[in-house]
Amino acid sequence: MFTIPLGRSVASSPARSMTTRAFSSVNTFGVVGSGQMGTGIAIVAARQGVAKDVIVIDNAAAALKNSEKFVENWVAKEKDKGRMTDEDSDKLKSVMKYCLLKDIPSTLDFVVEAVTENFNVKKQVYSDLESDGKMSDSTIVASNTSSISITKLAATVGNPERFIGMHFMNPVPVMPLVEVIRGIQTSDATHKTTLDLIEAMKKTPGTSKDIPGFIANRILMPYINEACFCLQEGIATREDIDKIMKFGTNVPMGPLTLADFIGLDTCLAIMRVLHEELGDSKYRPAPLLVNYVQAGYLGKKSKRGFYEY
Prior knowledge:
309 residues, 11 helices, 2 domains, alpha/beta, Rossmann fold, eight-stranded mixed β-sheet
C-alpha cells in the first residue's frame, strides 16, 4: 500500500521529467464497472503489474460473469497472435479478481470508476465505497468520465484533493492515450501519482483542464455531430461521408462508423453536456442523432446505428 504526500503547491512543483518514472505497485487497484471500458482498464493494469490485486467490481453478478468471459476470450486471441505466453496468461488471471460492490475484500489503494455516464449513478458509487469503508484517506479515486465535470464529481467525496479524471480511450488495451483531467480540488501529488501510474500501464498521458468535454470530446463530438447533420440534410450518403473523411484525413474510420462503435447514446449524452454547459448553439445535437437514439439505434452494441451489424 502506498501513501501519497499532500500539500505541495503548483508553484513549487519541479518540472516533470519526460522519462518514464518508476511506479511501485499497489496492493489493490479497483475498477468499478465491468463493461467494456472497465474490463479493458483492468486488463491493462493486471498485464503491466501495477498492483498485487486488480479487482473488477460491479453490482450485478451477470455483468461480472460477462467481464470474466471477455477476459478469457481476449487472452485467447492474444495467445493466438503470439503476443502473450501461457506464463503471461496465468499471471494475468492470478492477479485479476471479480466481486460485487458490497463484497470488496479489502480497502482499495487506487480505484477507477467506469460506470455509466450519469452523475447520480457515479455519486452513488462513491457513496457506497465510502460508507462500506472500501476507501481510506489515502485512496485515490479516478473517474473514467468522458464529459462530466471532475470538480463537480470530486465535491461528492470526502477527500476531493485525491479525486482526478482518467479518461481512457476505447478499446483500452489498444489505444495508447489516457486523458487526465484535474478538478479545482485535485492536488499536485494526486496528479503526479496518476501520471506515474499511467506510464506504468505503458500508456501516454495528456492533461486537460476541467472544461465540458475536456479536449478529446470537445473536438471529436462536434465532428461526429456535424457528420450527422450532413447525413440528415442529404449532402451525401453515409458511405460517402465516411469515405471522404477516412481517406481525406487519413484516419482509421469515418465519423459515422466511429459513432456506431462509441455508441450513439454516448455521443448524444456528451453533445447534450457540451450544449448545456457551454450554452453555444454550435453544440446542438443533430435531430437525426436524437431520433436514432430514441429508436434504439445505438450503434454496434444494438446491431443497428448508422450502419447495420
